[in-house]
Write a structure and sequence with these properties.
The complex is a heterodimer of chains A (about 240) and B (about 150).
Chain A: H1 7-39, H2 53-80, H3 83-114, H4 123-150, H5 158-166, H6 169-179, E1 189-190, E2 193-194, H7 198-241
Antiparallel strand pairs in A: 1-2
Helix pairs in contact in A: 1-7, 2-3, 2-5, 2-7, 3-4, 3-7, 4-5, 4-6
Chain B: H1 2-33, H2 44-49, E1 58-64, E2 70-71, E3 77-83, E4 88-94, E5 106-114, E6 117-126, H3 141-151
Parallel strand pairs in B: 4-6
Antiparallel strand pairs in B: 1-3, 1-5, 2-3, 3-4, 5-6
Classes of the chains: A mainly alpha (about 240), B alpha+beta (about 150).
Chain lengths: ~240, ~150
């Protein structure tokens, strides 16, 4: 695994990985959206508003997958001191926050016609809003820690620790509809079982795969950008000293 | 370097695992302890077992009993029963109901208990976890399975 600690090697892999993830990602994501928006029949209760499903579910899934990426990378950074792990965690934060915000927005738009309200403070919605705030805090903290390191300060582990501590919210979001009475319905898809009819389930799964590939591609692209940033900073500093 | 480096790595791993277990344990305990307070609504049997003080604003959630919706003479007031399978609470509401408010479906009513009747100021419809196309809702489960099998 430390073979990829060499940035040159990672960058060579990234150059190949980026189109491999993004091209099928966009094809699958837009294919599933077109399928969901124009081809599936309306739901027996919700009618056409069921189509928000195909945007809402991939967004909230990636909002949670984004923080899981941060948490796993933080463990790798803290334990194995892998130089790319911290960069991967920081690269996942912004796309994760964007998908979390999109999940909250699409959910709110969906809630108005179906539940009769834009927002309620039930367990699921509140814990998901907390996830957005955690992302914003993480992004600010990572930015501050990087500036500190660039200014010659010690490499701080506080970002990784925050990424790890924030992961506690992920199982809470997942279980919120089971532990507490909530307006949000219990999970439709659990391991090996689904209460979503196949007409909706297949385009949904394809969309989730497509958006996940896009997410992976964006993380790789942002890792390249962060590595380039660090290189430029180091070069400038050497020049200033020399 | 290699042996001492490995040892430090193992120490860090053990430390992180311990921290993670403690953290998750604490979080789950806190969340579990909140299970009553963090609930968004009472279900009818809760409301019957521990009734809130009269006039206090609470939420009541459950199923709308089949065949229980009755419209009053004024045309905007409805009466219906909310059930959780164990207890029933009669609810009165005046106003426009959300699209998903139908008999046999989930509802959350915001209001207060007045005597035995729950007077609601606002109704929220609760969707269940099932997503089914319109043309399949009237079929029996075996018919629906057949249709799904044919279209696959």
């Amino acid at each position: 695994m430390h073979g990829f600690a060499n940035p040159a090697r990672f960058l060579r892999l990234a150059r190949w990985l980026l189109p491999t993830l993004l091209v099928p990602g966009f094809v699958l994501a837009f294919g599933s959206l077109a399928w969901g928006l124009f081809m599936v029949p309306p739901d027996h209760l919700m009618g056409d508003t069921v189509r928000i499903l195909f945007m809402h579910v991939p967004c909230v899934w990636l909002g949670m997958a984004g923080w899981s990426t941060i948490a796993i990378s933080s463990i790798v950074e803290l334990v194995w001191r892998h130089p790319l792990a911290g960069i991967a965690a920081r690269a996942a934060a912004v796309p994760g926050a964007v998908f979390t915000a999109l999940g909250l927005i699409t959910g709110s738009i969906w809630g108005r016609p179906t539940w009769g309200t834009w927002w309620v403070w039930d367990g699921r919605l509140t814990s998901f809003l907390v996830l957005l705030f955690l992302y914003l805090g993480y992004i600010a903290l990572a930015d501050a820690a990087q500036r500190d390191a660039a200014a010659g300060g010690s490499t701080s582990r506080v970002t990784a620790i925050f990424g790890l501590v924030g992961a506690i919210n992920i199982p809470i979001i997942n279980r919120s509809v089971v532990w507490w009475n909530s307006l949000h319905q219990p999970p439709s898809i659990t391991l090996g079982r689904s209460t979503i009819d196949g007409t909706y389930l297949w385009p949904l799964l394809i969309g989730a795969l497509g958006f996940s590939l896009i997410f992976g591609g964006v993380v790789i692209a942002r890792m390249r950008m962060l590595l380039a940033d660090i290189q430029t900073e180091a070069r400038l500093r050497r020049k200033a000293m020399g | 370097m290699s042996s001492s480096g490995l040892k430090a790595k193992h120490q860090r791993l053990v430390l992180v695992v311990f921290a993670l277990v403690a953290l998750v344990g604490a979080g789950l305990l806190a969340a579990y302890a909140l299970s009553r307070q963090a609930s968004y609504f009472y279900v009818p049997s809760d409301l019957r077992a521990n009734p809130p003080e009269a006039g206090r604003a609470v939420r009541l959630g459950g199923m709308v009993e089949k065949g229980s919706i009755h419209k009053q003479a004024d045309g905007v007031t409805i009466d219906f029963l909310v059930t959780d399978g164990k207890a029933q609470v009669p609810v009165r509401f005046s106003g426009i109901t959300p699209d998903l408010f139908v008999e046999g479906s989930g509802v959350v009513a915001e209001g207060r208990l007045e005597g035995q009747t729950f007077v609601a100021d606002n109704l929220l419809a609760k969707h269940d976890e099932k997503y089914v196309p319109r043309e399949m809702k009237d079929m029996s489960i075996s018919q629906a399975k057949q249709v799904v099998a044919q279209t696959r």
